[in-house]
């Protein structure tokens, strides 16, 4: 094996063709892990050079080896992993260094921002302590005052208000977005030359994601560091990255500048990924591009092209030898260095249509689509539903010191065959709304009517069972929603047995369900952990459909899935809605998905609906400043658009429902409010704007056409 | 730093759909256990002691009642492999008997206490509210009761249980005091399981609560119970030794490791073999169980990182792994 080389040999090999000015050069990086199924070859030969001040985006689905690559660079993989190749920082070989030697580089030369800000900070130390710790490790001679001053500077740089006081705050006193800012502050504390950000915004809300990306941008400008941005979201990197590396099955399959990748993809996988992402900025309602199948098993050697099994353009030639990453023949207006690992790269010129190549199904039409909305029957109606939690204080005798209004007077209805989505940041009450509907109890505040059954009449088991037959739920996390000890058959049989269906009928129904959701019927005896995430979600959908409900409640149905898999599940949901005449109530934070699948949308903020209407009306012409901000925060997978687009960056986080403002809920963060003259601000602070109809949609704002505050607008030119 | 384990888990995740990688759960558990060398050694020691306690009687022609008047208080010799007591009884025969009693007490107490705590804990978590509060109060009260006094009173025969053999009496008393901790653990675990999405899903399907507990809760706390079983055995054996040592546990003519150790403490200098042999057996017994426990945790814990090594330390092993 060629990988059995000494570090000196590697260094010499790498030096032969690495540009001298690169801060980080990776050559032929290979990582192997042992698993229950044998040795997994997780990363199979990654090469890249990172130039100072540039941003490299590494894109790929989970398991493609992008995180493992970053961990290998940082030397953070477990001892048991086998790492070969060469990683050089400014010409110095990092692979093979001892942990102690590596510590000199970690944090000072190469720093990392992790995905989960919750677990990356130690809860028992103040954030100031943790920043100063990072400074102390690499600058032992720095005085205490200097370190503190530097920490305050850093916190200010990442946009934390009153940084001097916040230095003494503990991580739990910060919100998720603020913690991620602190993580960035720690990462840039020693002016690293390379900053590796591993899915830095995946765990955050869109508005917060926009803030954090902004902070990363500033951090890069201030320090001049090169950034490796690892993400599965093609939108996030479109505006930030200079170069993109698309990874698949542990190997880069296409590399090039952002323009090359987004406008002229030459590898079918890249093309499919781009087509699989729904667009928030277009009302075009065609089906998404599904990439069928799963990535190859890296515990076995890959024969031929790793993508062959899922590629629509596959031919016999693809199965002989894995294609090399070769330069794409230059076309006019295209930079050199665009490489693709596909023998058919030439056939995919700039005007290739992913929908045609991947044979995306046509957009299904429901029998209800032709009927006017008001003529369809209501399947769900909410009238002034409220959920207030008392806030208690005191150890022995509890005293009520306030009320958290998680859901505050919600009214809407869902008609047959339509999909209504509730969107908003986490903490706005959208999941509580779903749970209130699912609980279906006569003691609730407000009325919930499902298929003609009101919760006020649900006093006996018969009525509740009738309602449960009308409505079923699909959960966010497909793994958590299936009992790991049940076979698929048992999972699907549970709701049917509960209805008292005879055994033979159950078996027949389960076979139907498996076919309906696109799973092989002979897989019913498998356990959930033997399926991939997308297949598990299909099982969850099959279970929800088992009793033939009219309404399916979807709680973030695709947020836990990979982009390529997500497209398949969204297409399935679309198809089922049309074929079975289902209605959906969906909660989602991904507005692109919402736009693609929904007919109507309700934007929630602090327990109230602030804007609602047809999805195209609301998205194309948002009236409420919050909706405008939400929409502008969504990154679009289009580099040119993304770079020139005007963005509203909201200040701060969602206020806690406890100290909700008196007048308009949104006034504390509102970009319109901030620009208003004081006389007009008074109205926002004292009166609560009602949800009133104007134009095509309903919204709750006094000054929908007011000017936006200049401070909150950001344009990257 | 969960981030470090993530990439590996991620890779496993995307491969599972392939037919060829489907491995039965019991096989994974077995393999993970076998990967822990210490645990396998523990298992072997325990099995050896178990067999010794049953068939050990064949290793010596003597039994624990016969006196050998020619060998009184003699150190190990070809006649008596482990020597004799000052009364002339063969120590090997005593050890075989004592080990059997100790293992018996351990197995019965370990097994039954796990069963009791599972039922009690699940009931608490399932009913909640007032039932939970009352049962929790009883449990806390039991934890605070001084076990040693109850053992002393019960085994001295003043409880009216004279006709029961002393080892059975000790089993009953130990059982009474051993299940509380686990019951509390089971309660909190099932409470968190009740919050899982699949339990919620069953609830929203209208499945009755009783069936939810039986089908979703009990199987999912199984691995905890297996672990607690071995831990319970160790605990019971140690408790027996401790009680017998201070003279309130097993009473003669029954023999146990604790009794043997207790008797020999006075004459460690003159008859050292009488002290060290039973002590070594006890260490082997509890030690082997403790060694096994670690391996069982590796095997049953789904978040365990026991997947072996990919790193090649020697070229020969590398070929073996990568083939």
Describe what you observe in this structure.
The complex is a heterodimer of chains A (717) and B (323). Chain A is α/β, with parallel strands linked by helices. Chain A has 25 helices and 26 strands. In chain A, the strands form five sheets. Chain A has an eight-stranded mixed sheet with strand order 6-7-8-3-9-10-12-11. Chain A has an eight-stranded mixed sheet with strand order 18-19-20-15-21-22-25-24, with helices on both faces. Chain A has a four-stranded antiparallel sheet with strand order 2-1-4-5. The longest helix of chain A is centred in the first third of the chain and has 18 residues. The two termini of chain A are 49 Å apart. Chain B is mostly helical and 323 residues long. Chain B contains 14 helices and no strands. Chain B starts with 5 loop residues before the first helix and ends with a helix. The N terminus and C terminus of chain B are likely disordered. The interface between A and B is large, with 65 and 47 residues.
How would you concisely characterize the structure shown here?
The complex is a heterodimer of chains A (717) and B (323). By secondary structure, chain A is α/β, with parallel strands linked by helices.
How would the blueprint of this fold be written?
The complex is a heterodimer of chains A (717) and B (323).
Chain A: H1 7-17, E1 24-35, E2 38-50, E3 55-59, H2 66-74, E4 82-89, E5 92-93, H3 99-105, E6 110-113, H4 117-120, H5 127-138, H6 144-157, H7 163-166, H8 176-187, E7 194-198, H9 206-223, E8 226-231, H10 234-238, E9 243-248, E10 251-257, H11 258-263, H12 268-276, E11 326-327, E12 339-340, H13 354-357, E13 378-393, E14 399-415, E15 419-423, H14 430-439, E16 445-450, E17 453-454, H15 461-470, E18 471-474, H16 488-498, H17 503-516, H18 533-545, E19 551-555, H19 563-580, E20 583-587, H20 591-597, E21 600-605, E22 608-614, H21 615-620, H22 625-633, H23 639-644, E23 646-648, H24 671-675, H25 678-686, E24 692-694, E25 697-699, E26 713-715
Chain B: H1 6-15, H2 25-35, H3 37-55, H4 91-127, H5 129-144, H6 147-155, H7 166-178, H8 180-194, H9 197-204, H10 209-220, H11 222-245, H12 257-264, H13 272-300, H14 315-322
Helix pairs in contact in B: 2-13, 3-4, 3-13, 4-5, 4-7, 4-8, 4-11, 4-12, 4-13, 6-7, 9-10, 11-12, 11-13, 12-13
